[in-house]
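Task 17 of the worksheet. Students: predict the tertiary structure of the chain below and write it out as structure tokens. Keep your answer in the requested format; marks are given for formatting as well as content.
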Amino acid sequence: MEIDLKKENSRNVFLIMAASLVFSAFFQFSSASVTSLIKLAVVGSGSVMLSAVLLMITNILPQSVKHKFVFTRLKNELPACRVDQLCKKDSRIEYDLVKNRWPEVFADEIDGDTRNSRWYQQIYKPAKDTREVLQAHRTFLLYRDTFSGLTLIFLATIVWALIGDATITGQIKPVVFFIQGLLIILSLIAARISGNRFVVNAVAAAE
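Model answer:
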């Protein structure tokens, strides 16, 4: 039975997105006045609904688009396209051994897309159900989708700041953009690191 890692992560991604919106609302309505507290409660409730909508949008975004943004590459964006470079940097991997075992994957002359395809077929598929590979894959998908969701929240905040009704929220405070931007950067770094680790863990598990 195939394990749906993305479905397993949906709840966590939703909670992170909702927390980001509630946290932003807290700083936006930091005044202790009754009006601000009421607005904070209303916006906090709305944040849950908005998170659900943005999560649906995140789930229907093509994986290729998410990967291009996470790894900031238009071509050969997946980390397995660079599995040879990643393995050389990992102390767990004896590079000469893996190169001899999978010469079609680690050949110097092949392009990144071909390397990724061969890594998937020859290395990932045989090891995909091992504990370390499953956990690494799950973590990568979590941070990748979190990054996508937080980016959508940031874009929605910008749109609201430009065309939204200021009488409802007031002018969006700079601290809100700072918090959301910081969360995006942290999730981006985590997604990249976990994506690279996922690829190398598959090699280590398949050895």
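Marker's comment: The chain is about 80% helix and 0% strand. Residues 5-206 form one domain.
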